[in-house]
Amino acid sequence: MTKPLEGIKIIDFTHVQAGPACTQLLAWFGADVIKVERPGSGDVTRNQLRDIPDADALYFTMLNSNKKSLTLDTKKPEGKEVLEKLIRESDVLVENFGPGALDRMGFSWERLNELNPKMIVASVKGFSDGHHYDDLKVYENVAQCAGGAASTTGFWDGPPTISAAALGDSNTGMHLAIGILTALLGRDKTGKGQKVAVSMQDSVLNLCRVKLRDQQRLERVGYLEEYPQYPHGEFGDVVPRGGNAGGGGQPGWVLKCKGWETDSNAYIYFTIQGHAWEPICHAIGKIEWIDDPAYKTAEARQPHIFEIFNTIEVWLADKTKFEAVDILRKFDIPCAPVLTMKELANDPSLRASGTIVEVPHKKRGSYLTVGSPIKFSDMKPEVTASPLLGEHTDEVLTGLGYSQQEIFNLREVKAV
Ligand code: CAO
């Protein structure tokens, strides 16, 4: 089957997570992604948190599947020459170096555009160009703090909290992928490449959009009725941390199920969607709440919402999280068990859909990874192993027209 991005050649000058997540996605969909890595060491994640000595770490293998690896020292004149050749015949260059690194290497946007005016140059940085912090290097948690996620995550009596989800890294990579695809469509119309830039701060903030909504509501009315602080607690002048409250106007909370005393994940998320109140009362056996004025409307329930959650927890006490969800789903109540990584790894539905895939690897044996979360009716993205360092150097150089002797010479000067 022809994949939609087949024929699109991408120079993958990315490392760690934000950039590699973007190029991996494009590789799944058929792009020819050539990862350019420093000879001898490569992407730092090859060595980070290794679980098998001498084999690429899972951090690397899970973010670099379906790619080729070309080792190239792009600070050496011989390496620059190879890169220039590659640039002339590529559609996209993606990078997430620290601020100014590409310019210092001699590949500014102007130079790249001169070498190949049709090429799209896509970058991830911590902060956007011209921002007063645009000289900063940034990792995941830094971005979560800078983008508003940390100040609004966690409990009101605890410190700002980082999410385990890669809001700064993979999320930024996904934004960049959308930008690249948009620029490719734009190029079909104009014939010209362009620069696409995404900052980690902006990408986090984009996901924290509802918190900016709440800031404005707070400033206007002085309170936020869906937060646990309402109506008994106090509000200051900034959006507070709301614990596990629902952010979309549906009250919800993480509730204990059978076994919570010994299993730290024996919980479900329970949502009290306004129009589901009657089914909820039926499900938990509190028929008398249906017409009781103290419970009938969302407004009436809010002042004692935690008393309601406590009552639901009493109902949950003899049910596992899976049993509880099996009952509640029959009443159309939005809910889910709190799933562990172990449960997700072994979930038959996720295996069947290709969301969790097992990939054979030359050195590691097979490993689990997250496959494409995007499903298509005409294509099932196949996940293949990440490349070994420099695995495709000869193949790529031969494709660029280098002879065996020339490749040997490049090796002699340690340019590849
Ligand atoms: N050949 C020769 N040199 C190479 C090379 C190659 N193939 N590939 C990279 N380099 C060089 C670069 O030219 C640069 O050198 P100079 O700094 O001397 O100009 C250097 O390697 C890379 O620098 P860096 O700043 O990218 O790397 P770092 O480890 O110091 O910082 C990071 C890492 C992630 C903090 C930084 O890259 C960054 O802020 N990136 C942008 C934001 C981002 O994507 N962060 C998310 C990372 S995922 O958590």
How would you characterize this protein structure?
It is a single chain. By secondary structure, this protein is an alpha/beta fold. 35% of the residues lie in helices and 13% in strands. The protein has helices at 18-28, 58-61, 77-88, 101-104, 109-115, 140-146, 170-190, 200-207, 209-221, 277-283, 298-301, 305-316, 321-328, 341-345, 348-353, 393-399, 404-412, and strands at residues 9-13, 32-37, 68-71, 92-95, 120-125, 195-199, 252-256, 267-271, 335-337, 356-361, 365-370. The protein has a six-stranded parallel beta sheet with strand order 3-2-1-4-5-6, sandwiched between helices. Strand 1, helix 1 and strand 2 (32-37) form a beta-alpha-beta unit. Helix 1 (18-28) packs across helix 7 (170-190) and helix 6 packs across helix 8 (200-207). It is elongated and about 85 Å long. The two termini are 34 Å apart. The mean pLDDT is 97. The chain binds oxidized coenzyme A.
